[in-house]
# Entry
Amino acid sequence: MKNKVRIIAGEWRSRVLVFPDKTELRPTPDRVRETVFNWLGQDMSGKCCLDLFAGSGAMGFEAASRGAGKVVMVESSPGVMTTLRASSLKLGASQVDLVAMDASNFIDLDARRFDVIFLDPPYRLGLLPELLSRLHGHLSPGGLVYVESDSLPEARAEWQVWRQGRAGKVFYQLLKSLKHGKSDLPGNV
# Structure
């Protein structure tokens, strides 16, 4: 399945998405997506999600398939955006809002808050620390940030690791902003 990724669950379960043949596009593996959505809860009904580096669209379309009320997918590559538009049309994904823009510019210009932010920038650019520091104001209370990287990210004082895992060379975490307080962490009473 070169340049293809399968939606795991929800309304579009088993539907296949295609994406351009670009070396920086590496869809989140099925096993990782399954784990992350188990952590988030299988039903994303009513959630507002942001996929900042949409790429193949695997995380954003997976969230929409599982009932997210709104999924904003940001992508700066015109060729990749064309493919995302085609996938959105094919799926009838009316809850998906595709934004052709640089992720950093989007953070600066958009004031919406999100329940879940998927953050998986190209590894080689080293953008995680800078972008994470700017996401606090974009999270709804109790919101989580999914981070994926090729190495275990350094501990960040303003974030709490809620869950983390590793699959091969992929490290992934769900982070909770400490600027919103610890009391609203999922599982806390």
Summary: The chain is about 25% helix and 30% strand. Residues 78-91 form the longest helix (14 residues). Residues 181-189 have pLDDT under 50 and may be disordered. The longest strand covers residues 139-149.
